[in-house]
Amino acid sequence: MSELRGAAEDVPLPEHQRPEGTDGETVRAVGALSEALETIERARGHLYGFHQLTGRADAQLASAIEQLRAAGHREVADRLEHELVGRNVLEGRWTFQVVEEYDDGYYLPFREHERRVRDELACGRRHVFESEMKERERTRRPDGTPERFHAATPDSEPG
Fold first, then answer.
1. pTM of the entire structure?
2. Rounded to a whole number, what is the distance in angstroms from the first to the last CA of the chain?
3. Is 98:51 a contact under the CB 8 Å cutoff?
4. What are φ and ψ of residue 145, in 5° steps?
5. What is the largest CA-CA distance in the chain?
6. Count of domains in the chain?
7. With CB atoms 3.0 to 4.6 Å apart as the test, which of 39, 80, 112, 156 could cross-link to 151 if both were Cys?
8. DSSP 3-state helix, strand, coil percentages of the chain (rounded to 5)?
């Protein structure tokens, strides 16, 4: 770890500082939009989880059907195979189609709009709101240097 650069240099990196002329309301609003995108990212992860879990269940179903056949329950196995194997999870769609529709119709446009707003209103800078929160909440020693684990950047962290 490098030495502390000094209290005067213990500031966020430029890409995390409020652009000149940008007011607090704008920083909060852009931060709220970015937070909404973070929630969309989580929702997308759950959707991919749904996609993968459904695929796993299909493989388990195939195994169960074979076990039922092996146990002498051909009629039950045939019914399950006919009714469930290859079945759509939504009208006309398997899970990969649901994921693709979500990605193309909602996720990608949302992500593009969030980036465009950041470009227009915050010079493309990410997490300015959080960076300012970190600055407000960091603990400093009486000489102005940050307490350990309270530095602005890894390079300014005391050893």
1. 0.80
2. 7
3. yes
4. -75, 150
5. 81
6. 1
7. 156
8. 65, 5, 30
**Residues 55-80: tens digit of each pLDDT:** 999 999 999 999 999 999 999 999 99
Render pLDDT for 101-142 as a digit per residue (tens, 0 to 9): 999 999 999 999 999 999 999 999 999 999 888 888 888 888
Dihedral sign for Cα 143, 149, 153, 156, please. Answer: positive
DSSP 8-state class, residue 138: -
For residues 19 and 154, give the distance between their C-alpha atoms in angstroms, rounded to a whole number. Answer: 22
Helical spans, DSSP H, in 7-127 = 24-70, 74-84, 95-102, 108-122
Angle among Cα 152, 22, 127 to the nearest 5 degrees reads 40
Q: Which structural domain range is residue 84 located in?
A: 27-130
Place of tokens 């179903």: 61
Structure tokens at 39: 């929630």
Please calculate the CA angle 44-49-54 and round it to the nearest 5 degrees. Answer: 130
The closest alpha carbon to 15, from 112, 111, 118, belongs to 118
Residue 131: exposed, middle, or buried by beta-carbon count in 10 A (0-12, 13-18, 19+)? buried
C-alpha dihedral, 24 to 26 to 29 to 30, nearest 10°: -110
Is residue 109, in this structure, part of any structural domain at all? Answer: yes
User: How far out from the chain centre does Cα 82 lie?
Assistant: 38
Query: Can you read off the two tokens belonging to residue 93?
Result: 């769609």
